[in-house]
Every structure is written in C-alpha cells, then in structure tokens.
Design goal:
- The chain has helices at about 1-20, 25-45, 60-65, 70-75, 75-100, 100-135, 140-150, 150-165, 165-170, 175-190, 200-215, 225-245, 265-280, 285-290, 295-305, 305-325, 340-370, 375-380, 390-400, and strands spanning about 45-50, 55-60.
- It is globular, with a radius of gyration of 22 Å.
- It has a domain at about 25-50 and about 60-290.
- It is an all-alpha fold.
- It has 19 helices and two strands.
- The protein starts with a helix and ends with a helix.
Length: about 400
C-alpha cells in the first residue's frame, strides 16, 4: 500500500508539472463536479424495482417528496453548459486567431463528443435485441433502453449549441430567458399546446451557455455580477416554487404532472442562474484547491474520459441491478420500492458497487473517446507502469 501511495504521489506531481502555468484549473474542476453531480444524482434518484414483476423505473422523489432538495445539489447541468459556453467561445476565438476554419474547429469539438456514443448505441442494440429474443418482457426492455438513451438528449443539445457558438456567443442571456418565460406563460397560463415546451430545450440551456460565453469575455471578472446571479436566481426560483405552481424537484419525477427538466421550465432556468452564480463565486477557492497536485491529477484524469463516464454510468447501475437478480429479486436499495429511510441507507451502500461497475465500463470503452487510441498504460496501471505516458496523455487535455 505504501508503494502504491508513493507511485500515485509521483504521478500526481508529474501531471501537475506537465500542466501549462496559464491553465485555468478551476474550469476543469467545475466540469468534473458537473459530470460527477449528474452521475451521483442519477444513481441516487433512479430506482429499478421488481414490484410489478419485471423491472420498472421509479424514483425516491416520487415516494418521499421531502427529498426534493437532493435534486438541487445533484442537478448540475447548468454548470456544465456554463463551462461549455466558456470553453467553446474562448476556443473559437483562439481558432480564429490561428487562422483555423470554422469546420476544422467544430469538427474537433464535436468529434470527441460523439465518438463514444457509437459504442453505447452498438452495445445496447445488441443487448436489447438479445433480451427480446430471450423472452424478456417488452416493458422491461423499454425501461432499460430509455434509461440508457435519456442522457443522449443532453449531448444533442450541447452539440447544437457548440456548433452555433459563432452565432450565440454574444447573445445576451436575458433573451433566451425571456423566451423560456414566454413559453411557460403560453403553456401553463394560456392553455398552449404541450409541444411548445420543447422550444425551451434550446432556449433554457442557452441561458447558462451564453453566460459562459460572457464569462470568456471577462464579464465576471468582479464578484458583483456573480453575486447578483446567485441572489436573483435563488429568489426567483423560490418564488416560482412557492407561489408559481412549479414542482420543487429540479429533475423529472415519474408520474408527476410537470417536470422542471423535461423540457426545462422557467424554474429550471432561474435555478440554473443561481447555480451558475455560485459556480462563478467558488472559482478562486477551487483554483487554490487545484494547486494541490493530488486534487489536480484527479480532476485532469476525470476530464480525460468525461464523456465515457457520463455515457456509461446508467449502464453500470443497470448491470449491478441485473446481476443482483441472480442473488435475489428483492435486494434492499436495489430492487425494492424507494419509499423509506432504510432504502436510502441501502442505496448509499450500493454506490461503491455502481462505481466499481462504472470503472469496468470505463476500462472497456475509454479508447472510443480518444478516437480508438488506447489510454497510455501509466493512467490505468499505475502500480506496474511508468508515469511519463500518463503525463503525456494529460498534456493532450491540459493544452486543449
């Protein structure tokens, strides 16, 4: 164990030394926190139960509504779009200075985003077909496939906004926020059609994305604007929940009449404003934390495979759930109805098992995020391998 700690320490020092001095490590830390927030959130609020015979999807938020504040902590998509807008706007400006074409820039940005998707879709096409041929109930297959595909809407929206960066980078965030408010008024106040809500899929996430673009131009150099975002977003969200009829949960709840997330509502947008304000305010503490080699190495390594982690975390949870059926169809916290404190305690104990399964998925599919190139040996075999290859791999991310 002492030898392992020594090797990890040397690896962290190497990664720290390989990072450019002008790298904004807080940006990478925010991206990592956003991805891990989504992963942990899904693992905590998604439950596959056997109460109806086959596997069906439910949520502890549907059975214990007082848990809604949990979604405030783990629904971190606004932070991801904030960072995405910041990095894309800054990267496009740099590409123009280098003389790169738009097609070159957008191809590089979207390539790494979508390469891992092909592996997920291929595997689950085979798995779903095999389950149907093997006699698994259609409802069970639909439940599982829906959970796998649900994160992909996020990638489609993120890719569309990335591609539109030259058009939206200087858009005032108040404009898409006004569109979200108008759509909600139409839907909920004037009896408009439900399909109108899907306009907010673009408009709602444009709000944090354009805030990120404004950040890249120095709009949040002082703390005042970020404090205003946090305060205004918090007050507006509380008002909408307490008196506007919006649900308290910031994620979808099975069976609920209104979802704040699917499609995004005005409450989700104002919550995102508060979240972005808080993220901008903690940049300095995060930057100080990232000066520690161990903390920075962890963030840099997660960023190497952020999309792989995001795309496979639901598969990891479902694999553990399915394998658990070989032991019992009624394992607490895994197959049981999420309606008690006992379920919460049991689910927390399952989180390390989900993480272990995700590590297996990561080891099997991480190369797809790198265009088919294997991850250097040093990043995955720290005990047996040298560290210079891992450092070289991290350089690809920290110089991006």
């Amino acid at each position: 164990m002492r030898k392992l700690r020594a090797r990890l320490s040397v690896l962290a020092e190497d990664i720290d030394a390989a990072t450019p001095a002008d790298r904004d490590r807080a940006v990478d830390a925010l991206r990592t926190l956003a991805i891990l927030g989504v992963v942990l959130g899904h693992w905590l609020v998604t439950a596959l139960t056997t109460a109806d015979g086959g596997l069906s999807n439910t949520s502890p938020l549907a059975h214990m509504t007082w848990l809604a504040p949990v979604s405030w902590v783990f629904q971190t998509l606004a932070v991801f779009f904030l960072v995405g807008g910041h990095v894309a706007a800054r990267g496009y400006a740099s590409a123009r200075e280098r003389g790169d074409s738009y097609l070159t820039w957008v191809g590089q940005r979207l390539g790494r985003l979508f390469r891992p998707v092909a592996a997920v879709l291929t595997l689950w096409t085979v798995v779903a077909g095999g389950m149907l041929v093997g006699g698994v109930e259609l409802n069970t297959v639909q439940t599982l496939v829906k959970l796998v595909l649900s994160p992909l809407w996020f990638l489609v929206v993120f890719a569309a906004l990335t591609a539109a960066t030259p058009l939206v980078a200087r858009l005032n965030p108040l404009w898409p926020l006004a569109v979200v408010a108008a759509v909600d008024l139409w839907r909920f106040g004037l009896g408009g059609p439900e399909w109108a809500g899907w306009i907010n899929v673009a408009a709602g996430w444009l709000v944090p994305y354009t805030l990120g673009a404004a950040w890249s131009r120095g709009a949040f150099a002082r703390r005042g604007p970020a404090l205003l975002l946090l305060a205004a977003g918090t007050v507006a969200t509380a008002t909408l929940i307490l008196w506007g009829g919006y649900p308290a949960s910031m994620v979808g709840v099975p069976g609920a009449a209104i979802s704040n997330l699917n499609p995004p509502t005005l409450a989700a947008a104002t919550f995102g404003l508060a979240q972005c304000g808080l993220a901008l305010l903690v940049r300095e503490p995060l930057a100080r934390a990232m000066r520690r080699p161990a903390a920075w190495a962890a963030v840099a390594l997660v960023n190497l495979s952020a999309m792989t982690v995001f795309l496979w975390h639901q598969t990891a949870m479902m694999a553990v759930t399915a394998l658990g059926l070989l032991v019992s169809a009624d394992l607490p916290g895994l197959h049981t109805v999420p309606g008690s404190m006992e379920w919460i305690a049991a689910r927390l104990l399952w989180l390390p098992v989900f993480a272990a399964a995700l590590t297996v998925c990561w080891a099997a599919f991480r190369a797809y995020e790198r265009g088919g190139r294997p991850m250097p040996e040093g990043t995955t075999r720290i005990v047996a391998g040298s560290h210079h290859q891992a450092t070289a791999s991290v350089k690809e991310v920290t110089h991006a």
